[in-house]
Amino acid sequence: MAEDNNSGVSGKPDRAVVVTGASSGIGRACCLHLDSVGYRVFATVRKPSDGEHLQEDTSGRIVPVLMDVTEPQQVREAATSVDQMTGKTGLKGLINNAGIVITGPLEFLPIEELERQFSINVTGQITSSQAFLPLLRRGGGRIINLGSISDRIALPFLGPYAASKAALASLSEALRRELRPWHIPVSLIEAGNVQTPLREKSLALAAEIISQLPEAAESLYGPAFEKQMNVRRKIQAATTVEEAAQFIRRILETKRPKPRYLLGRDARFAAAMARLVPKRVLDRILGLELP
What we know:
This protein has 291 residues and is an alpha/beta fold. The protein has ten helices and seven strands. It has helices spanning 25-36, 48-56, 72-86, 111-139, 159-178, 197-211, 215-234, 241-253, 265-276, 279-286, and strands spanning 16-19, 40-45, 63-66, 93-96, 142-148, 186-191, 260-263.
C-alpha cells in the first residue's frame, strides 16, 4: 500500500505532507484539499480499503500508507517508506489528525478504555512525530497537531477525551520549544465541533461502553448520561471538514505559524468562557444536577 503506484504523477516533490487518520473526517478532507492544490500527500490509513476509496476521489497523486499510530513498528515502517519516496526533499508537514473519543463516567470507566484513549490521542501523536521528524528536519517542515477546545473546558463524561487533548496541548508546547533550534514549528489546533463522522462514532462507542458498566453506574449516572448524549446529538457543528482543511492549509503555508489556533466560533466562545468565567460558576453551568 505504501508503494507509489503513480510515479508519473507525483505532484510537487518539494511539497510533500503526511496526514494521519486520513480515512474519514478532517483527515480525509485535508488530503483531498491539499491534493487539489498540488501537494504530494501521504495519507495514513489502517485498512487497505480506506486507501483505495481515498484514491478514487483524488488526482491519483495521493499515496495511501498503512499505519496504525498505536503500533510503533508499523509507524517506523511507514516513515521508512515515505523517506524512500521523498528522498532529499523530505517533508513540508506532518498533520497529526488521528484520534477517537472515549465517553463515560470516570467513577466506573474501565481503565483499559482510558488507556486506549491516551494510546491513540497522545502516545500515537508522539510516535508519529518521532518517526517523521528526520524527514521534517530535512525538508524544513512543520508539525500541526489536531487538538480540541476540550483541553480548556472538560465536560461531564468527556473526561478521557478532554484529558487526552490537554496532554497533547502540553506535549505540543514542549515539543515546539525543543525543536526551536531547528526552526521546526509546532502548531496546535484547538477545534470546536466539526461536522465529522467522529461524533457519530463517539456516540455509538459511548452507548457500547455504557452498556458494559455495572448496574450502579446506570443507577447513579444513567439519566444524566442520556441527557448529555441527547444534547450532543442535537448540537449543530459550527465548522465543516472542508473549512477545517482550508484552515490547516493556511497554517501549513503561513511564514510564521502561531503556537495555537482556535477553529470555529464555538471554540472561540469556549476559550473566552474558560478565561473569564470563574471555575465554580462553570461548575454550576456545566456540572451534573443532583437526582
